[in-house]
Amino acid sequence: MSIAFSMVVNFIYYLLGAVELAMLVRAVLSWVAPDAYGTVITFLYAVTEPFISVVRRLLDRLSLNANSPIDLSFLITAVLIEIIRIMLSVMF
Fold it and tell me: Three-class SS of residue 67?
């Protein structure tokens, strides 16, 4: 495995870790201050929403997220990101 490829894999691994952390902070802040629209909240939504929206659209297409009291797309996205991180750490 080349050094450049290893660097790209490590970058993706840590980038996904940062997205997971941002998702966790977003979830906690949504419980503490659900109606806040500050700079931090806006940044967290801008960073995490591209990942979550893909899963949300898929769940909407399958009609699985319609009457759920929790945001399943958020949970599924977190699990998928963690699975990808585990695969990256094991394979490379």
Answer: coil
Going from the C-alpha of 72 to that of each of 6, 57, 85, the distances in angstroms are: 33, 11, 20
Which is nearest to 52 in space by CA: 17, 29, 20, 28? 20
Q: Side chain identity at 3, as an amino acid letter?
A: I
Structure tokens at 80: 């998928």
Give CA torsion, residues 60, 47, 24, 81, to 10 deg.
60
For residue range 34-51, list pLDDT tens digits in order.
Answer: 777 888 889 999 999 999
Please state the domain extents for the chain.
3-91
- Alpha-helical runs (H) found in 1-92: 3-32, 39-61, 72-91
- Whether the per-residue pLDDT at 1 is higher than 70: the answer is no
Q: Which residues of 41-68 are buried (b: 16+ CB within 10 A; e: fewer)?
A: beebeebbeebbeebbeebeeeeebeee
